[in-house]
Amino acid sequence: MNYLAHAYFSFGHPEVLVGNMIADFVKGRTRYDYPERVQAGMELHRRIDAFTDAHPATAAAKEPFRAHYRLYSGPIVDVVYDHFLANDPAQFTEGALAPFAQSVYRVLQQHAEGLPPRFAALLPYMEGQNWLYGYRLREGIARSLGGLVRRAAYLTDSETAFRLFNEHYDHLGTCYAALAPDVKDYAKRQLEQLIG
Q1: Rounded alpha-carbon distances, angstroms, from residue 183 to 5, 52, 129, 150, 187
Q2: Where are the domains positioned within the chain?
Q3: Could you identify which of 61, 80, 101, 147 might form a hypothetical disulfide with 132, taking C-beta atoms 3.0 to 4.6 angstroms apart as the criterion?
Q4: Rounded distance, CA 85 to CA 144, Å?
Q5: pTM (two decimals)
Q6: pLDDT tens per residue, range 138-165
Q7: Is the backbone of residue 157 left (phi > 0), alpha (psi -120 to 50) or beta?
């Protein structure tokens, strides 16, 4: 799961949303420098990732990418899942994604002073290029895969990932459909456990 899913699975709790979005940018004991609900969001992020990675649907979704990308097939599938989430009418009714994306950017801007520096530097690009809405579009996925490759130490090619995404589109959609209700139920239960 990538940024859109982590925002969505914060279920409207602003501080949980902040923690969920910044979790990958906060290392070690520095997580305890944040308010309790932001910490809960970070923990929720980690639990969602672990659940998603262990799900049989994710193993199946990685297969088209594994030969070319090996361990990076996981992060590629995270981006792919956000595409199918953005286009899932059970999660975003017609016209709901754009205002949802704007509400996420607004919450993050309201907490700008407490964001980790690397995430704070990324946020203007996320908002300016509207990444969260962009996941809905195939060209948005091409852009996201390009960004993933730029940030990765050992990757140089995003075009193959995008080609494989298009070639295996129906298979990947089926994998998402198998995962989505399970991860949503899991995230709800974990959030209740974390914040009561």
Answers
A1: 10, 7, 27, 29, 6
A2: 3-195
A3: 101
A4: 15
A5: 0.95
A6: 999 999 999 888 888 777 889 999 999 9
A7: beta
